[in-house]
Amino acid sequence: MHTVYSRINNVSAFLSSCLMALLAAIALSSLVFTADPKGILDVQSLNIYEGHTRRYHNRWQDVTFVNFNLTADLTPLFNWNTKQLFLYLQAEYVDAKGVKNEVVIWDRIIHKKDKANLSLNGRNKYVFRNLGKSFKGASAANYTLKYNVMPYVGLLTYGEAARTGPLAFPEKRTEVA
Amino acid sequence: MFADELKTLRRLGVRHVLLQILNFASVLATGLMMWKGLGLVCNTESPIVVVLSGSMEPAFYRGDLLFLTNPASERYHTGDITVYKIPGADIPIVHRVLETHDVVSKDKGYVSASPLAQKQLILTKGDNNPVDDIDLYQGLEWLERKHIVGKVRGFLPYIGYVTIAMNDFPQLKYALLGGLGLLALVQRE
Amino acid sequence: MDALQAKIQSIFEGKIDFEGQKKVEQISRVTLVAAAVVSFIVGFALQSLRATFVIFISANIVLFLVVVPPWPMFNQHPVKFLPAKSPSNDKKSS
């Protein structure tokens, strides 16, 4: 501690230990907040059309279009260590070949607490298609609204905010109604 | 200038130098051991990674430090943030899982309940990218477990920026070296 | 040239005495721990990470300003060396 250099060295070494302890305390503090808000998710319409997708340009494939209605108040998930909320709508089903599928059809990033009280009509953002050519023979699908809380420091946490009952896939439509 | 150093070296003898080397080697070995041990526990080749691209902004910025695990018994879910490495690509990518398809192989010789027969096909997307990652897969149609380095569990902001800054601004490296050199010259024993 | 170098060196080194070193050690330890605890509590109470880091960083800037330069208050107990003995005395005593 006798020269400027050694003082800077010593103090910044202790500073970094304190900073690490502070960050650890902040990360642990988010375990105190255990909010588990629930919302309501309604799938209003399901339609299947045949179309081209980005993946296979030269192949016809069945594509499902989902319209849904969503109300959820997710503000309790925001605390001092919440950087953002990643909200996503996922469809779960088993197709005719016994393949278990989870497909995200819509998502949204929420940065601010005052935007976390949601009430919206939406439709799928991402192309919803099966591994094979069609959805024929697939089981009824569950639609769930899930969230991922992303902290400034610490562990990522996941949760489920809403769920629909199983909804069967409709027959394919040939012309646009 | 080095006469003093040579004199001290002669005074301390070979044993002292060897001890220094041994100390240095043990520090290196401890570091490596901890890294590999952590990798073993987390079942991933690199349990801590630095974010190099901005495709997951605003979730992760360049320079953020991510802690990964990759338990073999756990399947991947949509919404998980994974780090994957495509064979032939030089840097790993941090993106979120968009689709999973659990295919059970019907091939002869496989029992359908065994993990060998269960293949999970995965599609990912960066939160900040408008479309999914097929174009990044270099010809692969889906990701599989073997491509995935780990799932992101924890997060520390900005700490890794030092390494990125060194690469982005080579001047910084020289400034650092110059500063250290100056310090060594100015300082008295 | 040597004189100039010595002067530059002494500015860069900023030596302080033993009592000063003890004081610096105590000040830095107490301030850092207190800054971490206070900033955490205030930030948690206000539910704002910004408050936490503003407090922590400003406390650290003040700490570095107090501790790093060789202020006169760290040099109030200079070491008193014994007067130099002449070589002849030295020989007799040994």
TrEMBL record, chain A:
Belongs to the SPCS3 family. PROSITE patterns: PROKAR_LIPOPROTEIN. It comes from the Eukaryota. InterPro entries: SPC3 (IPR007653). Keywords: Endoplasmic reticulum, Membrane, Signal-anchor, Transmembrane, Transmembrane helix. It is found in: Endoplasmic reticulum membrane. Signal peptide: none annotated. Essential component of the signal peptidase complex (SPC) which catalyzes the cleavage of N-terminal signal sequences from nascent proteins as they are translocated into the lumen of the endoplasmic reticulum. Essential for the SPC catalytic activity, possibly by stabilizing and positioning the active center of the complex close to the lumenal surface. Essential for viability. It is a single-pass type II membrane protein. It comes from Phanerochaete sordida. One of its GO terms (cellular component) is signal peptidase complex. This is Signal peptidase subunit 3. The keyword Endoplasmic reticulum applies. The keyword Membrane applies. The lineage of its organism: Eukaryota, Fungi, Dikarya, Basidiomycota, Agaricomycotina. GO terms for biological process: protein targeting to ER; signal peptide processing.
From TrEMBL, chain B:
InterPro entries: LexA/Signal_pep-like_sf, Pept_S26A_signal_pept_1_Ser-AS, Peptidase_S26, Peptidase_S26B. It is a single-pass type II membrane protein. Keywords: Endoplasmic reticulum, Hydrolase, Membrane, Protease, Signal-anchor, Transmembrane, Transmembrane helix. Its EC number is 3.4.21.89. GO terms for biological process: signal peptide processing. It is an enzyme of class 3 (hydrolase). GO terms for molecular function: serine-type endopeptidase activity; signal peptidase activity. One of its GO terms (cellular component) is signal peptidase complex. The chain crosses the membrane at residues 12-35. The keyword Membrane applies. It catalyses: Cleavage of hydrophobic, N-terminal signal or leader sequences from secreted and periplasmic proteins. It is found in: Endoplasmic reticulum membrane. Component of the signal peptidase complex (SPC) composed of a catalytic subunit SEC11 and three accessory subunits SPC1, SPC2 and SPC3. The complex induces a local thinning of the ER membrane which is used to measure the length of the signal peptide (SP) h-region of protein substrates. This ensures the selectivity of the complex towards h-regions shorter than 18-20 amino acids. SPC associates with the translocon complex. Catalytic component of the signal peptidase complex (SPC) which catalyzes the cleavage of N-terminal signal sequences from nascent proteins as they are translocated into the lumen of the endoplasmic reticulum. Specifically cleaves N-terminal signal peptides that contain a hydrophobic alpha-helix (h-region) shorter than 18-20 amino acids. Belongs to the peptidase S26B family. This is Signal peptidase complex catalytic subunit SEC11. It comes from Phanerochaete sordida.
UniProtKB/TrEMBL annotation, chain C:
GO terms for biological process: protein targeting to ER; signal peptide processing. The keyword Transmembrane helix applies. InterPro entries: Spc1/SPCS1. It is a multi-pass membrane protein. Keywords: Endoplasmic reticulum, Membrane, Transmembrane, Transmembrane helix. GO terms for cellular component: signal peptidase complex. Pfam families: SPC12 (PF06645). It is found in: Endoplasmic reticulum membrane. The chain crosses the membrane at residues 27-46, 53-71. It comes from the Eukaryota. Belongs to the SPCS1 family. Component of the signal peptidase complex (SPC) which catalyzes the cleavage of N-terminal signal sequences from nascent proteins as they are translocated into the lumen of the endoplasmic reticulum. Dispensable for SPC enzymatic activity. This is Signal peptidase complex subunit 1. It comes from Phanerochaete sordida. The lineage of its organism: Eukaryota, Fungi, Dikarya, Basidiomycota, Agaricomycotina.
